[in-house]
Design goal:
The structure is a homohexamer of 333-residue chains. The first copy, chain A, has 333 residues and is α+β, with helices and mostly antiparallel strands. Chain A has helices at 55-59, 109-121, 126-136, 139-147, 161-179, 185-194, 199-202, 213-217, 219-233, 240-252, 268-292, 318-326; strands at 14-28, 34-42, 45-51, 67-77, 80-90, 203-204, 210-211, 301-305, 310-313. In chain A, the strands form three sheets. Chain A has a five-stranded mixed barrel. A two-stranded antiparallel ribbon of chain A has the order 6-7. In chain A, strands 8-9 form a two-stranded antiparallel sheet.
Chain lengths: 333, 333, 333, 333, 333, 333
């Protein structure tokens, strides 16, 4: 059955499709009868929904984040669009494709994985290369790495976000290794590939994007270091100093203790990785926020960005601005 | 050969014994001749020393922290006591006993180990007990744990300091588990035993107390978590939640991100461990500082304590103060 | 008249009882007629209420926090339960018992006072003992100390909260004085008993829990120090040093300037008191928050705790978790 | 015997006079003989001194801060001026006048006290006036208030400094009360007079300027509040609200918790007092530092001021700067 | 047409007048028909409004902050007053007078300008005087300076607020220059006049008070320094040192880097200006907040002030408080 | 006369050359005779020096930072090398070449200027290009820009440092503009070229590297913004938005208020510039510190770096580490 997407639902016509149920709440009418409100969502958007019938059977069966099969009609309530649900049941995992429900990277996953493989292939140091090959040849790791979001919110909060962020940081680090020859290129690139690997364990993305228990209790920095350290132990003769330097990059990549790194960067590669990672995250946040939250009252500006604690300025497209203010013959000579 | 200790060297008489060489510096007399200055130390104290002869042979051979065999005479230079060294050579490891050179715990190491074993024996949870037994039945771990200092400076900066600090925190946590019945006693006691285990890897104590490369790059919080996590993986069916909770206690025991924990305490046991560990360290610091750095110009006060950023007040001994001012009939009239 | 509690009100039947009125607001119907909305509360919970009749007479007579006698019927409005009030008047103080309206300690007040008296009796230092006896033999002080909450919110925010918190800190300090023999036990226990005494003046609890003018302007640290210092002045020959040390414990017990202590702890007893008090408050907050705010969407977790700026993890009961993951014969051998 | 001041001692001639002994240290010559080094100081400056003879008798008798009678000759050691002491003994209190030894205010103490009395006389509120009269009619208080320094260092660190600082803040607050009519003038002026009264108890000035035990343990904010609160209690019918407001000004005058105030200013008078006090202290620090620590290498600048964490700029006298760069007829047209 | 002010609109009668439209939102009825909600405001207050008819023509024509001519009737919706609009169109600039729509200073603008001119006239230094005359003789500057608010919110957020704040700071600085003779009076007064001049460029006030693009990107500190520096460059022989000192005052007047000053005050005049400006702003905030946000539930207190992060205390009028607690004959003797 | 460099002075032979005099101090021998100590320095190092004769004539003539012509002999004093000066006089500017005395960039200045010119030539936006051309075609600016150090200490503290740092940041920004296509390349490159231009005014380098008065009072961020803003005003039709965006980059490039930027980055270009500049500075600091301050006691580590508040780890050369632990056939099996 082709997915009917929230953003394209026709007014007033019945629809049958799959959605994520969120904010499920049992309520009571004045008359005493129970009903259910929820939000039905997929990757294209979300809509409030109400279930008037058969609520008792549902009440204990539905939890936030469940993917459900729904029969409904799109109407309006107090001027807002609302789905009136006539049938609803939980969907079985095999009925659904996660990427229908969650935002996903707009880039090509296979292509990004290939880029990563190519970066691994370019590593000269045999221990680092083996470490990366061992990790990524494990299909569980590879698949999770390709699917995981990079965050619950803020930046790269979509399926494939970890991969997209990693590929971008790796690309930037390769540029920087060229620009600063003193950098140990193999170490920096390896650290860039692995720096956020712990997010595979920190975040869950099968129902809603959220932290796992391990994610909340241990965090992706420690979880990633565990994975890498454990794999290193399985490689004979992996040089101790190289292991320390690599794990140091992972532990310190947030840059400051108060940002969650238990150590601050003390090596050239750790310093470069921290800045590259930070810059890449900021650029991605800027672009995604500017796209999603322009402020119509202040042309050229975004709404207030809480993570950065400021408004962001996109400005006018440069040539347009130049053109409109300088006149036909000026300044071009 | 019985060790001659710095604190007991007789003035003006030749002495032959072993010391740690520190701050070794090659210098040049006006006449152009080379000489060597250093500080010779053992667990009882330290003295400046000078070597006038045979310096060329020594210059490249001596490094800070070397234990040396020395023939010298104690004199004075500008009013300060100084050793004039007539012969000096590096000592072989088998010639020396580390505890002669470094401050060591004043408590009985075997007794403290027994206390620890008894705490392990008292653990009811089979997984936690097995984890502890696995770790401490490894003689390398056990010996290092018994020998390691708990710090380079500040508190418990002596051989056996880690053990002494651990035993004290464990004892306190057992009291607290009794006082707060909601606490998972087995978990708290296990976490108390293991919380600083990473110091075995973070600190070196064979020459001078100092951080190892791994200590500086990864820190004892991550190093301890690595050890525990690795051992947990080798125990079949170790419950995931229990592992997460234990590792969380270790990672969060510094309490705040800016104090080096990548996660802040989120469980009751982690909260209790953090306070117990912090309190025990502060009490130990207070007592050791008060003993070593009284300020003769301000009776009852210590010199300025940089770590705490304040002066500490010891006051008058309680019974003396009480006695002198109250007496049997006083103060009630 | 037996109190009818909010949590047990029957639907659709008239009820007559006493409640605290909160958020009293005069409103106007489309038709122009005035009505009143408020929240009626007692220690068991609270309900929205509406008064349709006789509003003019009430409008200026009711203030937030007033205890009122009410005749009402429990119905529903937009699916939420709501009281429709038919008669309402302010209650006279003699009609009501404060403990019906505000949450109160679940522990036995008389028993806790006895514990405190026993702690006072155990003080050996005659000046400290006399100070405590003088303070607690004053019935105004004793009664207020037994009744006061320990906070407006966060932890021990209920009648008897100050006493419960104090007894708990005293008990912990007695343990710690045993554990650390260098501690002046009499001084520490006295300081533990008196450390939050200023809350008697800082908080009001006769209508709603809130700060008094003196509480907002001076705070419980200064107010408590005033009370203790004044009482000390009335005891002949109270040793100056002992007075300074005791007042220091009170002034410094928040531990840091930015937490409202004008001095940081500089004595062993002040350090121990600060940690004991902080730990006890954190444990109490944890348990009370975990009980009241579990997060049904994240089993084992609480909702977000603003005071601690984190989610808290309660986890599964240890034996259940162990059992479910280890199988019948495993791990017990 | 007329005091011979350090700044005016003649080279090479014997002198007999009184000085403060500081940094007294017993030392040992190469030959094994003991000698003593110290610094001898009075309000005009200080000089290193050495005692070669009769040291044994002195060693335990002299403490830092003692005022001593000395017979000595001024010579030089390694190019620095040094006193060689031939006789030294502790002086009896009646032999000396404190103001010879410590820096003292350059302003007229009696005149400043009169200014203060005049400010008290101008208070209209009878309770506040009585409070001030009660406090300052006590000769112990009055004398201590006239003599106390306002700080151990930084600003007003001289005899009479508290009085000078207080008079200046009072004058400024009177101006501000005129400028901002909403201010309760009597309250502000009273608070200005009393805000630092606790320094009388916080600082000792009979030997060296230093904190007393009470000063270090309780601080001048609490000590001042104690004095004022105690005196208020002795005045019948002193309005509670007025007492709270006045004590609030004293407790909050440092402005922020991290600057040692247990409450931040919440009333108009407390806000004004905080700024007036802060400004006056900064102006005094600036002028005194600029006078004492010009940086000859950077004309117009001071040396680095640690308390303010910056260099201060005094600049050229305005007319000189103007004159030198503009010429006689320029810029006026 | 005389302006009908929001605060004085009669119930139930048609009104025709000008208002600022805010929060304009297109909505949809259940029936599918579009309608518009907005808030209509002027300097006396604001009211919710709804437009049922002719919405399509309006939708794209109205933007937040537009001044509109409106025909409407005042009714009620769910007990809240609401305007039902029957006709609405954008007003032409010449139809309206800004001061009808925005809060404005209650003081006399011409009188304040005269005070400023008089302060300029009192400057003795010829360069500073010329600088001020050059700036304020430019009618664009003069008019903007007279009209600009001093803030978007917090204090002096009304038309004429910049002028009112500046005149107040100038007056205070003149007092302080008298009180501290070491201050360069001409420099301080000039700096006081110019310190917030950049607000003319930072804030827009023609539609709603808000930051301009330049205001958000560069800020009033830099914008003001630009204006002053540019004008200084146009004055021949303006002494470099004087220019540096004046610009330093402007750049540093926020006092700390984290408050937006790129340099902290290093001269006496910059220090005094910083405190004077800060104090004056705080006093104005206090008075305006106390007037607008009293907390009826806590007599004598304001509601919570977010900018200051505290409740403010106004207290009882002093004589009333005194009177009520002291009785007829007390305290006057 | 060929410069004799400090690092190459022969022992015991007379030398005549030019040096910078630092730490000039008049002293007095025991015999009462005056002498002078100073440090004589050039770009290769520095040596203590003493002048025994003719001191009276010199005393008032020499200031720190003067370049002097000196006749001296290299000997030793207490084992340290020391110059005994027999003749000394101030050098005339025309006698000396600054680059002999101060450390200078090791890169080719003309080449770096050419790189800058090439970057300017690559700017497409006509206004930005003209701005850059106007600025750099002024020979005073160009020369100062080529000569200025980038700091008094920390990184790029040598002649040509500003140019070297700028060229490196420009190069990095060009890479980043390629990597992030959303970036306005012309704006970013222009901002990179100009971001530290204010250092030309902030630092003096003709005697010692130190802040100018304007540098200390206004700082390079404001000084640079002044220069750029002034030049922009002279270009007709320079788009306002482009000017704001460029000035915003300059003002915000330190990234945070507490690091001295009066605005934080709000545009994509400002964000990228901030990270690029920060990263480039950190890399330069790392490399220069690692080269100059290795810690011989901790191979692979530097001494403590105060600016970064940590030790830095250089590690073993990668191939050596790899080689020594793996060998040709190892690790692949």
């Amino acid at each position: 059955m082709a997915k009917a997407f929230v953003a394209e639902l026709p007014d007033g016509q019945p629809v049958t499709s799959y959605f994520v149920a969120k904010q499920v709440q049992a309520r009571q009418r004045r008359s005493g009868e129970a009903y259910l409100t929820m939000v039905l969502a997929d990757r294209s958007g979300e809509l409030p929904a109400v279930v008037w019938e058969g609520v008792e059977d549902l009440a204990h069966g539905l939890a936030d984040g469940d993917i459900v099969k729904v029969q409904a009609v799109l109407g309006a309530y107090r001027g807002e669009r609302q789905l009136t649900v006539t049938r609803v049941r939980k969907a079985a995992p095999e009925e659904v494709c996660l990427e229908d429900f969650f935002p996903r990277t707009e880039r090509d996953v296979a292509g990004m994985l290939a880029t990563l493989d190519e970066a691994v292939a370019g590593i000269g140091d045999p221990h680092l290369k083996r470490l990366l090959q061992d990790l990524f040849s494990d299909p569980t790791v590879r698949d999770a790495f390709a699917m995981a979001p990079a965050a619950k919110a803020i930046h790269h909060a979509f399926l494939g976000g970890l991969l997209e962020h990693t590929v971008s940081v790796v690309g930037l680090c390769r540029l920087l290794a060229d620009y600063y020859p003193a950098v140990n290129r193999d170490l920096l690139v390896t650290a860039a590939i692995l720096h956020d690997m712990g997010k595979v364990d920190e975040l869950g993305w099968e129902r809603v994007f959220d932290y796992t228990d391990a994610g909340r209790l241990l965090g992706h920095i420690a979880l990633g270091a565990f994975r890498v350290q454990e794999r290193i132990r399985s490689i004979p003769d992996f040089p101790v100093e190289l292991a320390n330097s690599l794990l140091h990059c992972i532990l310190s990549h947030h840059g400051e203790l108060e940002w969650g790194s238990p150590k601050r960067p003390k090596t050239l590669e750790a310093i470069v990785l921290h800045y590259a990672e930070n810059l890449d995250g900021k650029v991605a946040s800027f672009l995604s926020f500017a796209k999603r939250y322009p402020d119509p009252q202040h042309p050229g500006w975004t709404q207030f960005n809480k993570a950065l604690d400021r408004y962001l300025y996109v400005g006018q497209p440069p040539n347009e601005a130049g053109g409109s203010e300088s006149g036909p013959t000026a300044n071009d000579g």
